[in-house]
Amino acid sequence: MNINATLLAQAIMFILFVSFCMKFVWPPIMTALANRQKQIADGLAAADRGKHELELAAKKATQELHTAREKASEIIAQADKRASEIVDEAKGHAKVEGDRIVAGAKAEIDQEVNRAKEGLRQQVATLAVAGAEKILRREIDAKAHSEMLAAIASEL
After folding, report:
1. pLDDT tens digits for 122-145?
2. pTM of the full structure
3. What stretches of 25-142 show up as alpha helix (H) in DSSP?
4. CB 125 within 8 A of CB 149
5. Is residue 9 part of a domain?
6. Which structural domain, as residue segments, surrounds residue 138?
7. What is the pLDDT of residues 39-67, one digit of tens each?
8. What CA–CA distance (Å, rounded) separates 126 from 43?
């Protein structure tokens, strides 16, 4: 065999092999590479979108937390104000109740004083009658002189 013919045959076979590979092997490989490249690009884009959404969510969470703290502060302030109002209202009710109790006690004391005075008047009237009876050495009729005894009792 001739070396030139061998080289020429090998060159033809190589060209046929390259054309076969270019026609049947190369397109599926290129398609797979393109799909893989697209998949990687989509993954990177999704990662960027996720990162951006995470930043937005973090900002929104911070804003919501700030809003919640403000609302909590308002609620606490309202609760403190309402507690002060309730305490003041309770103090007012307690003062009114205390005044009422004191007034009732004073009225009761006045009644007891009047009863005691009346009792003392009757005792003094009885003693006066007894003293007058002893002085006059005769009996004074209490029924007959009830007007005079009432006048003496009222003067006392």
Report:
1. 887 777 777 776 666 555 566 666
2. 0.44
3. 26-136
4. yes
5. no
6. 42-155
7. 999 999 999 999 999 999 999 999 999 99
8. 119
